[in-house]
Amino acid sequence: MAVRLIYETHSTTVDNETGIATGWLPGELSALGRTQAVELGARRRKVDVVYSSDLRRSVQTAGIAFGDGKEIRLDRRLRECDYGIYNGRPVSEVAALRSRHIDTPWPGGQSYRQVVAETAVFLRDVMGEWQGRTVLVVAHTANLWALRNLLHGTSLEDLVGPFEWQPGWEFELV
Length: 174
Hints:
By secondary structure, this protein is α/β, with parallel strands linked by helices. Helix content is 40%, strand content 17%.
């Protein structure tokens, strides 16, 4: 039996609104982000379990959306790519360097390929536990790229560009 996996990015943060690439810093939801989290909860009521990155912005999103009794499991394997010394730098600066860090870790951080490896282990564990169920993941841009690389075969080189938000992506794990 397959697992239906729904991926949602964390809601809008203060850093998103001010053009900061948060990376492994905790981040904080903005007023808009809190409203988006409420909308997420209404949109995705029928999931069996919620997994969230353990970074504060994702924890806040999941808590606001599903904190009324839905099981929420925090998982550090769902963290954004660690930009190392570039955590907290302007998005424009980080975006210009992304393609250099597909296989080479950011100084003091990790590579996008390392995020893919963490995601692959996460998916294996989800497959083992949630056959025939619906799993929702609240995480970050790098995690979506990892899912699309692992499940659709899209190259990381083609993925590490501009991010276009939408209300979730759905995948079938078989």
